[in-house]
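@channel sequence for tomorrow's demo:
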Amino acid sequence: MIIGVLDDNPAICRLLERALTAAGHEVYSATSPTHFIESIYPDKIGIFECVIVDFHLSEGRSGVEIIRQIRVDYPFLPAILISASQILPSILQELLDVEILQKPFTFPNLFATLKTLHEGAVRAEKDLSPVPAERLDSGTIDSYRNGVARPSAC
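structure tokens (generated this afternoon):
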């Protein structure tokens, strides 16, 4: 899996990068929100299969803000928000499809979360894949074109 990591604590950033790389992932990391958005984001975001972002960042930015910015271009990109503090319920409500990991977390917990996100993304990709024409009848095609129904690929 290709993962983008953003944490303003260099020690945590390095630790995540080493653990994820050792587990077989390709990792692009940054400790600065500006560096992540201006350097890594434009070059690599299209290849990321997941991003891991700290909740409290430097430069007056938050992980929620970064995830919102990424989701403008990639609305379904799996994301993990990591935090040492409690996250307000209103923010949790907004981020229903973002996994939250409370620090300190274990690497087995992180890896299990990544696996769950990856499996969910693969299922979603299959759900959005084109349906062979021979599986559609004219009524289904009309509904599909009008956005009324999504034909089953089963």
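heads up for whoever presents: The chain has a mean pLDDT of 79.
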